[in-house]
Amino acid sequence: MAVSLQPFKRGLAAIALLGLALPALAETTVSDAWVRASVPHQQSTGAFMTLTASSDSKLVGVESPVAKTVQVHEMTMNGDVMGMREVKAVELPAGKAVTLDPNGLHVMLMGLKQQVKEGEQVPLTLFIEDTKGGKQTLQVQAPVRPLNAEAGGGHDHMHMNH
Amino acid sequence: MNDLYTRRAVVAGMGVLGLGLLAGCSPARGLEFKYGKNMSNEILGRKFNLKDPQGNPRTLSSFYGSMPMIFFGFTQCPAVCPTTLARAAQIRQMLKGRDRDLFQVVFITLDPERDTPEVLDAYVKAFDPSFTALTGTPEEIAEVAKEFKVFYEKVPAGDTYTISHSSTSYVYDTRGTLRLSLGHSLNAKECAEDLVTLMEIC
Predict the structure, then answer these.
(1) Are A89 and A60 in contact (CB under 8 A)?
(2) For chain B, N or C: smaller number of CB within 10 Å?
(3) Average pLDDT of B55-68?
């Protein structure tokens, strides 16, 4: 992920340098973005990433050319029941890394226009607003990981192959 | 993995001592699971009548001789279903020889309207080619869910819907008696340990 974001970060850095005289611009960075592969004719899949905003902001929308509808959902466990609900905005407190992963908040790509295959890159556009009304649009190329990819690098699976 | 073998050796040793244990699947009282719940005395999941993706009718008796681990989900599920299927694939890799052959993962869709047989088959087999999926009419699925006391409900999302549902996996012995339930929070190693405990008595 870092690789595909680099040119963008450099661009941001350049803008930041140019704009020294301007009011401080809220800036959000994205890392470890990925999309879970789908099988043919599967209608939706998830996108995951870590967002860090420089000042208090909100993720207010996501778009992608691969899906008809993109929403942020929150997964909750209530006893053994997995609950799912749509979230209109995700709070991004200043300086705090907010992770969108399969076990909590995540982006749902719904109404897939085609199969999403391992190794491809899925373009995502993130719409972010800071508390002062400043708007930022982030373009992310999220690599597609296999259908059985684990969340966050396999937290409780690290010790299993000894 | 080593402790699994050790455990097996100990349980096998106990089996030789206790002759009763050699007579096939023993009564429930001998079963002590470390992580999962002993379901031997629960009146749950005694029957189902569904179809596999090839259209063959499948009932509990279709799985006699294997140890099915059944759970419910839908392919558009972003979280619990892929994690549970990935865990099931890891469990299968941890089981050896006969135990691995006995283990049969069965994924029952709670979304028969959108999960076509083709999608279902490709989905479960992406995790492990040995996995199978079952589907039915919405009414048949509702009946099976009721039989398992599995909760599920459609949640509107935009112009479509997602599904909230129970995430527990259910394991049967080779004679079709429900024996064990494994919660979503257990890892593959914990599940495999309990499965070996069950496989030792059958």
Answers:
(1) yes
(2) N
(3) 95
Which residues of chain A make contact with B158, given a CB cutoff of 8 A? 69, 71, 86, 110
Q: What are A16's strand-pairing partners?
A: none
Instruction: Write the pLDDT tens digit of every residue in B11-49.
Output: 444 444 444 333 456 665 567 899 999 998 888 888 899
The percent of residues in chain A predicted with pLDDT above 70, rounded, is: 77
Mutate to test the interface with A, among B189, B191, B193 (most CBs of A within 10 A): B189
Which residue of B127, B157, B163 is in closest CB contact with A147?
Answer: B127
Residues 6+ apart with CB under 8 A from A66: A109, A112, A113, A114, A116, A122, A123
ipTM, interface predicted TM-score of the complex? 0.76
Q: Which CATH number fits domain A2-147: 1.10.260.40, 3.30.70.100, 2.70.150.10, 2.60.40.1890?
A: 2.60.40.1890
Residues on chain B touching A149 (C-beta within 8 angstroms):
82, 86
Q: Which residue has the higher pLDDT, B80 or A110?
A: A110
Amino acid letter, residue B129: P
Cβ <8 Å between B82 and A71: no
Q: Does B183 touch chain A (CB under 8 A)?
A: yes
